Amino acid sequence: MFDIAPDHAIGLYAGLLALPFALIAISLRPARRLVPGTVLAASVLLAVSGAIHLGLISTHRAEPLTALLFLMNGTGYIALSFAFTWRWWRLASASLLVATLLGYLVYIALGFDLPDQVALVTKLLELTALGLVLVPARSEPGRPRRTLRWVSFAVALPVLTLVTTSTVWIVALARPDAQHAHAGALLQATNDVATPAQTAAAAQLYADTKAAILPYQDWHKAWAAGYRPGGPTNMPSTHWMNQANVDAGYVMDPQRPQGLVYANSKHGPVLLGAMFQMQHIGQFGPDPGGPLTAWHQHENICFTPFGFEFSFMTPFATCPLGAIDISASPMLHVWIVNNPSGPFAVDIDDSVVKKIDRA
Amino acid sequence: MSSRPEAAFVLLVIQAVLWTMAGLSALPFAIAGEVFMLGLGMASLLLALATCLLAIGILWRRRRARRWVIALEITCLVGSLLLLLLPIGANHGPVSLLTNVLLPLAVLVLLRKPREAFL
Fold first, then answer.
1. A177: pLDDT strictly greater than 80
2. Among A35, A290, B46, B91, which is least packed, fewest CB within 10 Å?
């Protein structure tokens, strides 16, 4: 969702290339003086959206249906961008925009494609164009169905924006690509199957780390060593961070992990594992166990200093007021409890924490 | 008569809906136990509501609404540019640029003139 699919990048270039041409084409038409600026702006956005769709045909020739839909959409948008003086322009433009928006949502919901930045840019342009097509301007001559257009605007724009955002988000979370897991965590690229040497190295790392952090099962010792809760302690689990170890930049040192993870049970904090963290964003650590010990980096999270809490950035790149969009530098967890997802999994299984709480 | 206020109105409504989504997105985390997220989510929803009301004020060509919107968009723009410049791993993708930089910039451009159109 936050990446640009390689076969979609050309659409973005086509759209950027089309923008100056669309502006020049409109400025050369004398008919531009007969319509309000909102119509001209919508025409430019239709032209850019059309160019994006047409640009995508070249990389989708192997998918005839998709290529045909891109061709129909692109041609329709370009034609409408020129036909803004046509009597039925508003109805035709609004219908095509709504059909395209809904069609895309059905398309991704059925799993024919995954949402990416090019698709989201196009949807944002289409939503804006729809708003500009429907909004009545004071400068329009006559009484061009103002009430109907206001009602259409008030219903279509918010509803379509909310439905688009929700659908894209649900699809992206339900079907992450191979490099993403756990709601957007970017995984380190590794070989597919661990070699015997990598399996042995992973087992050694696990044994060393477990032996080193076992004393911290008593959270008082962790506190004395400089570990502090790095977030709310009313959640199922909390990362306790050691700022001295973070600042020192130890790399995967079992004796000095940057963080510890505790379950917040009714009996108090129960040690779940350790967390190694690199100092810089995009700098993945050593990977002795290959696919078994792949690091991961949390991207596009909305972090707030109030209570050190976080949420996820929306597909249209907004965070709640008071939270900012950040990435956390790469990390590797070592779970010393029996985690069904594995001892180096990105996250601890909820059932483990619940079981500890019930014990 | 210029239709710039109507164009700004459309952009502000879109911005308000996007903030509504941001506010709603905080609520599951609040339910999971992040108490501050509840406050931030509600604040975002209130901001979305205020933006919607300001958009209506722009549509009615009210000078006070224009002033508030300009202040709001400058704040958004400065915040977004800071996030772009600081090395904190903020998203620099095209959607982020469109939503957080180009959209406020477009609203500012649309509202810069003619002032006399506003009452």
1. no
2. B46
What residues contact residue A256 under an 8 Å CB cut-off, 6+ apart? A242, A245, A248, A250
Q: Each residue of B23-42: pLDDT tens digit?
A: 999 999 898 888 899 999 99
Structure tokens at A155: 């219903």
Q: Which of B95, B96, B98, B105 to mutate to test the interface with A (most CBs of A within 10 A)?
A: B95
Give the span between the Cα atoms of A8 and A15, in whole angstroms: 11
Q: What are phi and psi of A160, to 5 degrees?
A: -65, -35
Amino acid code (one letter) for A296: H
- Write down the residue that tokens 């108090």 correspond to: A268
The answer to whether residue A269 scores a pLDDT higher than 60 is yes
Q: Tell whether ipTM is more than 0.90.
A: yes
The amino acid present at B33, given as its one-letter code, is G
B114 CB within 8 Å of a chain A CB: no
**Cα(B87)–Cα(A291) distance, integer angstroms:** 29
Are A26 and A43 in contact, with CB atoms under 8 Å apart? Answer: yes
* Averaged pLDDT for residues A336-359: 86
pTM here?
A: 0.88
Chain A segment 126-165 residues within 8 A of B by beta carbon are 127-128, 131-132, 135-139, 157-158, 161-162, 165
